[in-house]
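Repro case for the chain-ordering regression, as requested:
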Amino acid sequence: MPNKSFAVSVAAPHAEGEPSVMSRTHHRAPERRRPRPLRRVAAQLQTGTVLAVFVVFFVLPVLWLVLAATKTDQQLVHDNPLSFGSFHALKANWDALTSFQDDAVMQWLGNSALYAVISLVITLGVAIPAGYALAMTEFRGRHTLLVATLVVMLMPNATLVVPLFLEINAVHLIGTMWSIILPYSFYPFGVYLTYIYFTTAVPKDLLAAARMDGCSEFRVFWHIALPLATPVIALVGFFSFVANWTNYFLPYVMLPESSQMPIQVGVGTLLSNVPSFNPTVGDLAIQRPQLALATLVAITPVLIVFLFAQRFLVSGMLAGATKE
Amino acid sequence: MAFVAAYVVLLVAFGVLPTAYAVYFAFTDAGGKVTGFANFVSTAHDFRFLDAVSHVAVYLLFWLLSLVVFVVALALLLHRLASGSASKALRFLYYIPGALAGAASVLVWLFMLDPTVSPVRSLLGVLGFHTFGEVIAPGNLPLLFTIIAFWTGAGGWIVVMYGALNNIPTDVMEAARIDGAGAWQTAWHVQIPMLRKWIVYMVILAFAGGAQLFVEPQLLSLASVGVAGRDYSLNQLTYDFAFQMNNINGAAAVSVELLVVSVSAAAVFVARSGFFDAE
Amino acid sequence: MTVNKPSSGRERASSKSRAALLAGCAAAAALTLTACGGGTTGTTTKDGFAQVPQKDGALTVWVDATRMDAVKLYQKLHPEVKLNIVSYDGDANGSNYLQTKVQLFNRTHKGWPDVVFSSQNNEASWAVDAGFAAPLNKGLVDEATLGKFASGANDVCTVNGTVYCLRNDLSQAVLWYNAPLLKKFGYQVPTTWEEYQQLGEKVAKEHPGYLVGDAGDSFTPEIYLWASKCGANHITGPKSVSVNTSSEACTKMAKLMDVLIKNKSMSISGVFSTDFGKNQADKVLLMPGPAWYGGALFEGTFKTPAKQIAAAPIPQWKGETSPSTGNVGGGTWLLSQHSEHIKAATDFLKWVTTDNAYQGKKAPGFPAYAPAAEVWLKGQNSSGYFASDLNALKAASSQVWPGWGSGQFSQEAIWAATVKPALTQGKSVASMLPAWQDSIVKYAKSNGYKVSQ
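-- result from build under test --
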């Protein structure tokens, strides 16, 4: 593990008078020092204020969206933006939304779940081992693979649509859900995340030790690397899920039947039925609060998955794993 | 290597081949005949091209600066928070907009930026904006797009950086503290250097993402019914060329230009940071 | 076992990557083969185009959410017909879905829908070249039927004399007004643009805050300038256009608008903007606008109470001998040349554009097919919402000025990006006419049009 030495004079005494030499090689949890109350509180207050300002920045629009779903269209325009509408209006919006094209919203959600979960499984099965191998093993073409992955990630995808369509057509998968799931499963961003994680958080000598003990490469991966990789597996899994859940353009182009649409494309359809964006819609118009409700429904699964993944995302500590 | 076999298949099928095909498009015409740089020249002469280039350049500046500075700063601040559950809650709150990608956030921004109905209309009023039209004036667009992109994109990177910060062994942090380093010094001399690879990754992707600016102007164009954000960025032009004017070759040419710029920038970052070293 | 990778591992590694490479090459080969494409064999030339061998099977129909009613009704009335109904965004909001998909289908040589509805009027500008839209007046649809469409309605579908799509509905512009309010203020409905301007000036003086029009929408030119016969969008051929925004017709109307914008009797917030909805919706005295304003705008969005809104013919310039009006939108139905169910497709096409069961009784917009429009008008007149009958719509339906076409480039988008921001900044319409012309010319050229000015 690269240990960036920190060049500061050793002269500054530790609060409790412990000799510096000992604590540098200590692996125990840091001892509680007597807090310097005022300084510490002030620092936490400063930190808290900055963080709070950003909370407002990130959350205010979402709060608006939640409240918008409880209003009627007239209320949305005339009332205070952050006022609560009414449960009655919320129910009316929900009913209007679910009756759109015979309960299309539920079907869209189901489609999204199907595509996202299946490709999540495939992505993890492909990206984690690949990132591991790129980081922790030597093989011919490792460098090429890294470069190719990066280049491909940086390619704008307007022009990739046509070749992709032709490819999927060549293997007769147009119209099936695999036309979405297979491209989704190609997740170079996740491969790189795994690669960086393994190169920065897992010491090579750890694995070298295991290999020296006679483990096959697969066992090293399965029994040693993988358990240490829980945070990055959760990270890649989560981001892959979100990327697939919110992908608009690929399903828009690939899927021929409206019954196959995922929720993101569905919300786009709803948008084109809102009179202020498309005035000629007539009676079947979707009102803006209903669009807000649909948006909330579309993002809820993502947020639930995030809450679930958070537990694993940040554990990362390698306590006592190696001897320096 | 068995570990990478499946990935290589997918990489070739969905990465390399389509990219190669797109490059092929860039150098040929609609009939498949090789035309050298003709597509590049003809698209550069489009009346929107130069403006799009300058728009993207300005945006990139705003975007890279704000993303790197604020994401790293917020991740560090979150890490400093004494309460673990507060930190967890904040990371969640910061992330929520990240779920609102694309069309989903059109409605949000339409209302947020319209002084008539916005929750922040007092702020907009203080800045001198009284109508939606004033808010989306051309001079404000780079900042607006940066704000929108940051709003959706920062949360995810904060989570990544926070996790990376957790990977710094406590004994290193402890050593720094014992040596008397304050918060800023620890951050600058210990934590950020150890986050180097993650930050480089973020910068590479942010650069490419910024160069390929598409979602934010498209969103604003939809919200403002075409007043602002239409044909604003190069990537929007590629979609126009490809799907409106049936000029896939021109679209490919511009895409290749964007790719070259992004890859060159990435190469610089990679070379200077030892990104590919499996330490 | 040494720390270094054993050589056998190396070979295994390279053979695995070779396998992967082979898989990749196979995909590449498949790709090139598909791209080369096959030829068209076995087609019969009939009804003016090469028809593929016909089969039995489900008819694939693409509609937007609003037209879903039409297809469902057809299915109900014709249970024996097999339909595969696909809902899409109708190409609304600048989405290029239909064109994008057709281009992809053209490369894979399959997948085209049989009948498709588009909310745009300009599909013929690319669908003919793309070999998608089938000619309809060369045998598929009889002259009698075609003749009963409102005059000029199918012009947007016509390329070199061949009709390639059928118009679904018209959006002819009329003068909407608030009858009780007008009476209360003691005004008369203007019949000329001169009277309209005078009324606007009176309103600004006597009842400031009340509106006689709106110049803030992206479709504003299609109401005012089109009605005034401004030559900003004269499509002269499949890929040629003549643009002149400085003719007298244009400048006259621009000056009128500027006077009213200046005295604030004409708004510059779009009718669907939050600003209008919040502050101006209940102050509408007059509002020139398309047929669908009645339902979608006044009834649906502003929630104006019943028995207030009425329609009168749009004003004309004094001394005008051939009255003209503008048009904002509509929609078209296309039939695919590649259809394997041409008879079924044509039956559906004819039904959905002409039959009273849908167009007369259920359509949200003014039908382009005149007989169905009669039935539709009767229904609207007896709905009880409007303060007058809507017969002004009938007269206007044949007065849409044919000198403004529907090209590949969007006039609405150009106005929105070029003129509207200037209006917001306080510039006048008249001063923006040259910039507007410049913008139209640039977009037209960029889309491959030959431009004459």
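Ordering looks correct now. Chain B touches chain A through 115 residues (CB under 8 Å).
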